[in-house]
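Recall that a protein's primary structure is simply its ordered list of amino acids. Everything else, from secondary elements to tertiary packing, is in principle encoded there. The following example makes that idea concrete.
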Amino acid sequence: MAAQCIHESGHGTSPNGNNYFGIKVPGGATYAEHVSMQDSFYSYARLLAGSKIYAEARKYTGQPKKFLEEIKKAGYAEDPKYVELVSNVMNNLTSATA
Protein backbone atom coordinates (compact mmCIF):
# COMPACT_ATOMS: atom_id res chain seq x y z
CA MET A 1 0.00 0.00 0.00
CA ALA A 2 2.84 2.39 0.82
CA ALA A 3 4.48 1.81 -2.57
CA GLN A 4 1.21 2.47 -4.36
CA CYS A 5 0.68 5.66 -2.38
CA ILE A 6 4.21 6.86 -3.18
CA HIS A 7 3.82 6.08 -6.88
CA GLU A 8 0.28 7.42 -7.29
CA SER A 9 0.96 10.70 -5.47
CA GLY A 10 4.39 11.49 -6.89
CA HIS A 11 6.09 10.71 -3.57
CA GLY A 12 3.40 12.60 -1.70
CA THR A 13 3.95 15.82 -3.64
CA SER A 14 0.81 15.86 -5.75
CA PRO A 15 -2.15 14.27 -3.98
CA ASN A 16 -4.87 16.45 -5.49
CA GLY A 17 -7.80 16.55 -3.08
CA ASN A 18 -5.86 14.32 -0.66
CA ASN A 19 -6.27 11.52 -3.20
CA TYR A 20 -3.12 9.49 -2.59
CA PHE A 21 -4.20 6.56 -4.78
CA GLY A 22 -5.64 8.23 -7.88
CA ILE A 23 -9.11 6.84 -7.19
CA LYS A 24 -11.80 8.15 -9.49
CA VAL A 25 -15.41 8.86 -8.54
CA PRO A 26 -17.98 6.31 -9.68
CA GLY A 27 -18.30 6.64 -13.43
CA GLY A 28 -14.61 7.46 -13.73
CA ALA A 29 -14.80 11.01 -15.10
CA THR A 30 -13.06 12.84 -12.24
CA TYR A 31 -10.85 11.99 -9.30
CA ALA A 32 -12.31 11.59 -5.83
CA GLU A 33 -11.49 14.17 -3.17
CA HIS A 34 -10.80 13.22 0.42
CA VAL A 35 -10.77 15.31 3.58
CA SER A 36 -7.43 13.85 4.72
CA MET A 37 -4.68 11.37 3.94
CA GLN A 38 -6.33 8.96 6.36
CA ASP A 39 -9.62 9.26 4.48
CA SER A 40 -7.80 8.48 1.22
CA PHE A 41 -6.32 5.30 2.74
CA TYR A 42 -9.74 4.23 4.03
CA SER A 43 -11.27 4.87 0.62
CA TYR A 44 -8.60 2.77 -1.06
CA ALA A 45 -9.10 -0.08 1.43
CA ARG A 46 -12.89 0.03 1.04
CA LEU A 47 -12.59 -0.01 -2.74
CA LEU A 48 -10.35 -3.06 -2.86
CA ALA A 49 -12.08 -4.92 -0.03
CA GLY A 50 -15.61 -4.25 -1.15
CA SER A 51 -15.52 -4.46 -4.92
CA LYS A 52 -16.22 -7.77 -6.64
CA ILE A 53 -13.80 -6.94 -9.45
CA TYR A 54 -10.88 -7.16 -7.00
CA ALA A 55 -11.90 -10.52 -5.50
CA GLU A 56 -9.12 -12.36 -7.33
CA ALA A 57 -6.53 -9.83 -6.14
CA ARG A 58 -7.60 -10.30 -2.52
CA LYS A 59 -6.36 -13.91 -2.75
CA TYR A 60 -2.82 -12.51 -3.04
CA THR A 61 -2.55 -9.98 -0.23
CA GLY A 62 0.56 -11.78 1.01
CA GLN A 63 2.18 -11.65 -2.45
CA PRO A 64 2.56 -7.96 -3.31
CA LYS A 65 3.62 -8.31 -6.96
CA LYS A 66 0.87 -10.83 -7.75
CA PHE A 67 -1.62 -8.57 -5.95
CA LEU A 68 -0.54 -5.64 -8.16
CA GLU A 69 -0.85 -7.79 -11.28
CA GLU A 70 -4.38 -8.78 -10.32
CA ILE A 71 -5.62 -5.26 -9.52
CA LYS A 72 -4.07 -4.07 -12.78
CA LYS A 73 -5.81 -6.88 -14.65
CA ALA A 74 -9.10 -5.88 -12.98
CA GLY A 75 -8.73 -2.31 -14.25
CA TYR A 76 -7.24 -0.46 -11.27
CA ALA A 77 -4.46 1.25 -13.24
CA GLU A 78 -4.28 2.53 -16.79
CA ASP A 79 -0.48 2.66 -17.08
CA PRO A 80 0.79 -0.50 -18.81
CA LYS A 81 3.94 -0.31 -16.65
CA TYR A 82 2.02 0.10 -13.38
CA VAL A 83 3.10 -3.22 -11.85
CA GLU A 84 6.73 -2.63 -12.79
CA LEU A 85 6.76 0.94 -11.49
CA VAL A 86 5.12 0.15 -8.16
CA SER A 87 7.29 -2.96 -7.78
CA ASN A 88 10.36 -0.76 -8.19
CA VAL A 89 9.12 1.52 -5.42
CA MET A 90 8.53 -1.55 -3.20
CA ASN A 91 12.06 -2.79 -3.90
CA ASN A 92 13.49 0.63 -3.04
CA LEU A 93 11.52 0.73 0.21
CA THR A 94 12.69 -2.77 1.11
CA SER A 95 16.32 -1.87 0.35
CA ALA A 96 16.09 1.30 2.41
CA THR A 97 14.80 -0.53 5.46
CA ALA A 98 17.14 -3.54 5.25
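Residues 82-97 form the longest helix (16 residues). The two ends are 18 Å apart (CA to CA).
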